[in-house]
């Protein structure tokens, strides 16, 4: 009895799997033997370096610029290179190519003598100084603030306290306002058991491992799942390169100034001061209704760090007539960086900001 010939499609599939298995083993050796790709793609100058604070100006790619410069404000726990990962994968590069004058408020680890920096210092000292530097460098009186996560919180508080200017537009990405909606963080920092005063008074600076543990608690199997995806995709150079850049950033956490951590825990996490209207910064009450500039808040549909309940009140509480909330597919990180961001957030911000930056 004649045997049937093997299906060519099956043979081709087997060959592909064998080839991928070989590549995975070879690439696995290369992965562990080589350093992660260096972050940062766009040329920039340091306008201000003051302890933990760094202010960058990215060199424009064109002589034709929108009138209003944009100041990106990063969360104090994370480094700003998530916005500028690599050529073709850089939010900063995208903005430069679209004709924006781009600045970034970034952070280094605070020194021991900066342990006393509190919420007042970030909102009423660092931010105003950076805005003034941007005004001076650009020659423009107006500035757009664009804050990511807790950078959005700092930007929002600043704008509520300075409704008369100089901020012309406020854009926030995945920014928490209702801290009672951050349920797992609430459990982690439960006021009944979490002695924040003892932690801060003892350590001075809150170590990065402490905050990283909090983030990883939100997705306890996330790192294991990521390693499984990496093992499966080791044959693919582009996938591995992207994975390493994102993994490097996600684990590259910064220590926090103790007083800032104490302030955010007590005034935001426990007292929920932005929603109740009881938050005071520099002795002044923060009224979200005082925000009247054009406001855009972009929310990630699958954000495990800032859930929908936590981000929803921002646009509701703001007093702006021109305000918009956009919910886009993606997670807390993928909404600002990577292929998902390139298709969704980046063009949305460009469309919104372009007509408001003239």
What does this structure look like?
There is one protein chain. By secondary structure, this protein is α/β, with parallel strands linked by helices. The protein has one domain: Rossmann fold (3-Layer(aba) Sandwich). The chain is 44% helix and 16% strand. It has 15 helices and 12 strands. It has helices spanning 8-33, 91-97, 119-138, 150-161, 183-188, 196-203, 208-218, 222-233, 237-251, 258-270, 273-276, 308-311, 313-317, 339-343, 345-354; strands spanning 44-50, 53-58, 70-73, 102-107, 143-148, 167-173, 205-206, 256-257, 280-281, 284-285, 295-300, 323-328. The strands form 3 sheets. It has an 8-stranded mixed sheet, sandwiched between helices. It has a two-stranded antiparallel ribbon with strand order 7-8. It has a two-stranded antiparallel sheet with strand order 9-10. β5, α4 (150-161) and β6 form a beta-alpha-beta unit. α3 (119-138) packs across α4 (150-161) and α6 packs antiparallel against α10 (258-270). The longest helix is centred in the N-terminal third of the chain and has 26 residues, at 8-33. 40% of the residues are buried.
């Amino acid at each position: 009895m004649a045997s049937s010939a093997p299906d060519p499609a099956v043979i081709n599939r087997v060959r592909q799997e064998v080839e991928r298995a070989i590549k995975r083993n070879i690439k696995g050796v290369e992965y562990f033997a080589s350093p992660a790709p260096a972050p940062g793609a766009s040329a920039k100058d340091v306008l201000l370096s003051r302890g933990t604070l760094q202010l960058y100006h990215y060199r424009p790619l064109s002589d034709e610029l929108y009138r209003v410069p944009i100041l990106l404000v990063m969360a104090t726990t994370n480094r700003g290179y998530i916005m500028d990962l690599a050529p073709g994968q850089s939010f900063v590069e995208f903005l430069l190519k679209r004709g924006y004058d781009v600045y970034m408020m970034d952070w280094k680890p605070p020194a021991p003598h900066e342990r006393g920096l509190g919420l007042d210092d970030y909102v009423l000292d660092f931010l105003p100084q950076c805005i003034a530097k941007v005004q001076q460098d650009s020659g423009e009186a107006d500035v757009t603030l664009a804050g990511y996560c807790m950078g959005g919180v700092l930007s929002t508080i600043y704008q509520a306290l300075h409704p008369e200017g100089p901020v012309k537009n406020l854009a926030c990405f995945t920014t928490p306002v209702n801290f009672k909606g951050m349920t797992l963080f609430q459990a982690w920092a439960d006021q009944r058991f979490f002695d924040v005063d003892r932690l801060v008074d003892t350590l001075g600076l809150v170590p990065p491992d402490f905050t990283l543990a909090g983030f990883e608690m939100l997705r306890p199997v996330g790192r294991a799942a990521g390693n499984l995806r990496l093992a499966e995709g080791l044959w693919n150079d582009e996938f591995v390169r992207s994975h390493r850049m994102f993994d490097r950033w996600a684990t590259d956490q910064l220590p926090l100034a103790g007083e800032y951590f104490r302030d955010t825990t007590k005034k935001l996490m426990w007292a929920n001061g932005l929603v109740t209207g009881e938050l005071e910064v520099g002795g002044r009450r923060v009224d979200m209704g005082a925000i009247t500039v054009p406001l855009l808040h972009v929310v990630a549909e699958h954000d495990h760090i800032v859930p929908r309940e936590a981000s929803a009140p921002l646009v509701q509480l703001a007093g702006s007539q021109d305000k918009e909330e956009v919910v886009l597919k993606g997670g807390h990180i993928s909404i600002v960086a990577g292929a998902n961001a390139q298709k969704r957030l980046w063009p949305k911000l460009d469309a919104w900001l372009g007509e408001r930056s003239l």
